[in-house]
């Protein structure tokens, strides 16, 4: 029972990482581009693909985590490095974002903690 709960929590966290890409990408036309309207056009041309690149990275991270969840559920034992690395990236970005941009970025810290906690617990239950 505990294993199923931890597995479901890992999967929900993985899905939230992937879905974050759509929220991130949708902010460009609605909020970011209008707020930066006074900048040079070349700066905007540089920032827009970078924003969508980050969105694609978030989606890729989510897909990798879902794939890891699926493989671990079928006995894969050497895949834990994936959530550990993604969690480390999210932890660093979350702390930096919370300090310099606002408390919303603590969500990344929570996602990192959930990835690490569920991965560690699932590894120990084998």
Radius of gyration using CA atoms only: 17 Å
Strand content: under 5%
Number of β-strand runs? 0
Q: Tell me the helix content.
A: over 70%
Principal-axes geometry comes out as elongated
| SSE arrangement, N to C | HHHH
Mean pLDDT: 92
Largest sheet properties:
none
Number of domains: 1
The number of helical segments is: 4
Classify the oligomer.
single chain
Tell me the distance between the termini: 14 Å
Which stretches are poorly predicted, pLDDT < 50 over at least 5 residues? none
Keywords:
4 helices; elongated; mainly alpha; 126 residues
Question: Can you give a write-up of this model?
Answer:
With 126 residues, the protein is mainly alpha-helical. The protein has one domain (2-124). Helices cover 84% and strands 0% of the residues. The protein is built from four helices and no strands. The chain has helices spanning 2-35, 41-73, 81-100, 106-124. α1 (2-35) runs antiparallel to α2 (41-73), α1 (2-35) packs antiparallel against α4 (106-124) and α3 (81-100) runs antiparallel to α4 (106-124). The two termini are 14 Å apart. The model has no long low-confidence stretch (mean pLDDT 92).
Write the layout of secondary structure elements.
Layout (H helix, E strand, L loop, with lengths): L1 H34 L5 H33 L7 H20 L5 H19 L2
Overview in brief:
Helix content is 84%, strand content 0%. The protein is an all-alpha fold.
């Amino acid at each position: 029972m505990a294993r199923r709960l931890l597995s479901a929590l890992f999967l929900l966290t993985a899905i939230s990482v992937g879905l974050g890409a759509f929220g991130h990408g949708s902010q460009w036309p609605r909020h970011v581009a209008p707020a930066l309207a006074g900048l040079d056009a070349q700066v905007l041309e540089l920032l827009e693909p970078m924003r969508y690149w980050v969105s694609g990275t978030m989606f890729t991270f989510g897909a990798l985590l879902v794939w890891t969840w699926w493989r671990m559920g079928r006995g894969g034992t050497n895949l834990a490095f994936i959530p550990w690395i993604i969690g480390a990236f999210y932890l660093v970005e979350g702390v930096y974002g919370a300090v310099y941009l606002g408390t919303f970025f603590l969500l990344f810290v929570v996602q990192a903690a959930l990835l690490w906690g569920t991965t560690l617990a699932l590894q120990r239950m084998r």
